[in-house]
Amino acid sequence: MKRSILVVLAALTATACSTKYIGNTRIKDTEENRELLRLVEQYRRAVEDRDVQRILSMTSDHYFEDPGTPHDPTDDYDKDGLRERLESAFSKVQDQRLAMDVRKIDYSEDETTAYVDYRFVYRYQLDLRGADEWREQSDLNRLELRREGDEWKIVSGL
């Protein structure tokens, strides 16, 4: 009898302290995390729609990218450079699909910066005569976002 009471108490304690997660993820179910997931989904849809303006509206005026080469400033770009890159890339694509699987969300100590780690699969078809084949890229990536007023804005990672 004593053992079964201990088992029941242990089970109750475990469920009482369990964390709620957003469906099919290991991301804590908080309003802040849901807001970031909505932004990621808006970005995904804007990419599929090839909507440069919508993507830019999600980015900070302080957007900056060093494409993984911090020692080489020649390939760095800001929000204007992002616009040019998006316009150039989208003009070469006939169709595209983007799948994004958010794996983790972390925050800075002051909670003004968020880091969204995700896996993506990008399938695209180039706009070339006779090119019917789809190409695919997949990788892990991290978005960095900052709270600007009432909104999260992307500051790097696209």
Describe this structure in words.
There is one protein chain. This protein has 158 residues and is α+β, with helices and mostly antiparallel strands. It has one domain: Roll (Nuclear Transport Factor 2, Chain: A), CATH 3.10.450. The protein contains four helices and six strands. The chain has helices at 2-16, 31-49, 52-57, 79-91; strands spanning 64-65, 77-78, 93-107, 113-126, 135-148, 151-156. The strands form two sheets. A four-stranded antiparallel β-sheet has the order 3-4-5-6. A hairpin with a 5-residue loop joins strand 3 and strand 4. The chain is globular, with a radius of gyration of 21 Å. The mean pLDDT is 89.
CATH class: Alpha Beta
Beta-strand proportion = 25-35%
| Rg from alpha-carbon coordinates | 21 Å
Largest sheet: 4 strands, antiparallel
The order of strands across the largest sheet is 3-4-5-6
State the assembly state of the protein chains.
single chain
Gap between N and C termini, in Å?
59 Å
In DSSP terms, counting alpha (H) and pi (I) runs of 4 or more, how many helices? 4
Structural class: alpha+beta
Net shape: globular
Topology pattern, helix = H, strand = E? HHHEEHEEEE
Q: CATH topology, which one?
A: Nuclear Transport Factor 2, Chain: A
Unreliable spans are none
